[in-house]
Amino acid sequence: MFLDFFLKLKDSKIPVSLKEFLTFLQALEFNFVQFDVNKFYYLARASLVKDEKLIDKFDIIFGEYFNSIERIDIDDVIKFLNIPQDWLKKLSSKNFSNEEIEKIKSLGSFEKLIETLKKRLSEQKKRHQGGNKWIGTSGTSPFGAYGYNPEGVRIGQHESRYRKAIKVWDKRIFKDFDETNELDNRGFQVALKRLRTWARTGIEDELDIESTIRETAKNGYLDIKTRKERENSIKILLFLDVGGSMDDYIELTERLFSAAQNVFKNLKYFYFHNCLYEGVWKNNKRRWEERFLTSDIFRTFGKEYKCIFVGDAQMSPYEIISPGGGNEHFNDEPGSVWLERAVEQWPSNLWINPTPKNEWGFSHSTSLIKEIFMNRMVPLTIQGIEEGTKILSKK
Amino acid sequence: MEFSGTKEYISTSDLTVAVNASIALEKPLLVKGEPGTGKTELAKQIANSLDLEIIEWSIKSTTKAQQGLYEYDAVSRLRDSQLGNTVKKVEKYIKKGKLWISFETKNKSVLLIDEIDKADIEFPNDLLQELDKMEFHVYETGQLVKAKNRPIVIITSNNEKELPEAFLRRCFFHYIQFPELETLKKIVKVHFPEIKKSLLNSALQTFFEIRETPGLKKKPSTSEALDWIKLLLIEDLDPSDLKSNNRDLLPKLHGALIKNEQDIQLFEQLAFMSRNAR
Q: Does the predicted interface ipTM exceed a cut of 0.90?
């Protein structure tokens, strides 16, 4: 029963085990889910997905699978407006020829476009008698046709006008939780917590029962032993890029920063602009008056610190490779020298880049920095941070 | 034994299905959601509607899994032996934990493990077998403790830590969404049946407007909405009092809704901007 569905979930990397699937089938026996497709969906969700970030993926697959069984009305498809861009891109070319695209463009208005699409879709319905899946990468999907949007009209804007009752899983209310989205700082905290290492430090104020018993037995009188409390002993040194192109990422960086402050007691941070040079600062308002020499920082913070740079790494390559290239002051030594020193000083290091990973290839300076950091560059997403903690945990 | 919400608690149909599945199959139900959406309340209401005893185990960052089973008081046994008392009876020094207590109730009980994510990362793993088989061994006495009636286990999490896969596999899962306007209306009516329709509508409209303001550090949720409306009723305010004027974007008694200084500043700035725009 529903074995295909199970395999489909597996294929899409939703971590569902056989045990959970059997539980689901077992639960189907009870009458509180029978004869109601919504309840059936809720039960499947409660028993098979254990993470709200995956519910959206689950909804898509659920829709895909069960609609290939229960065919969906073509009108519903028209009303259903909220579909990922890349499917549309893939599909639009299959459903329209170039002349048609030109023709639609010439029609002008959104309403006309919809009309054309509707006509188009009903034709298609006749031709493919019920065999058309309505989501996914199959070439006959009517969604593809709907996806072409020549006038740059945002489909979603007309939502209220065309909306009709749609199925629960089609609403995709959990879309915001999808893991690839940049999340709030709780997500960062969870990711950063992996870096914690425990050690006993400080004063001895915790009762150590085991050695108390051992010593008491040995000595013949009650001999209380205490020990130090367990604490997170990791030390983090954070360098944050501010100003210029980083302005777009202020909020994201702020979240990372406050998450890091929550997780690590022993966190030191400094600011820099674009690239690391001979001075850094702690207070952005007084950045010229209160400067710290980078060489002092090298001396102050030893190898036990884990060093994290946060910056978009987008600048003119001269700011990295040549003396005097810095865009705010004249630097005697090129930025690359300073960065290399940092990498050498703190062997456990990482560069976190808030720009999307697929844009890194287009910027020369990004590849330069990535090279200096020996490829230890991760994007500022939950997944990126998780990857980063793995890099930093390696001894 | 079936749960379907109570007079004081509106249960959406997806939540109802999840609860009933976990009751029927005797597996724990893990509930996540924004703070203040009624996660803890759920367990109490299940106990209430099914007329069962509730046993609450609130987890702190220092809680150990063992404490839920039992605690062996080695120190007082040691002390007693120093004083020359007989200490042969180990049972005397074993204190039952919440899990044990819930195993021994006469009828079925509801066990609430509240905020499981507060504890150490390994905590859920240490409870796997105990929750799965509903039995455990007492090491000191060799006794096997087995549940007479398997309790209904409700576990809540605020998502501060990720829970281990092996643990998740044994649970049903439900994420409590922030209620939509219609559901929230129902919830408010359950708590304040006498509320006037006009006040309810305008209060909730204002509430959703505040909630949707971009950049809020802490969005007000269901429990804040209820507190606020309670205050409105006590003060006996008119719906027209709630209409935010240009001078002040925040409604009256907003202290119940917004509890963060930065958020209040945000609204002051917005108000300032809208004044200047005129």
A: no
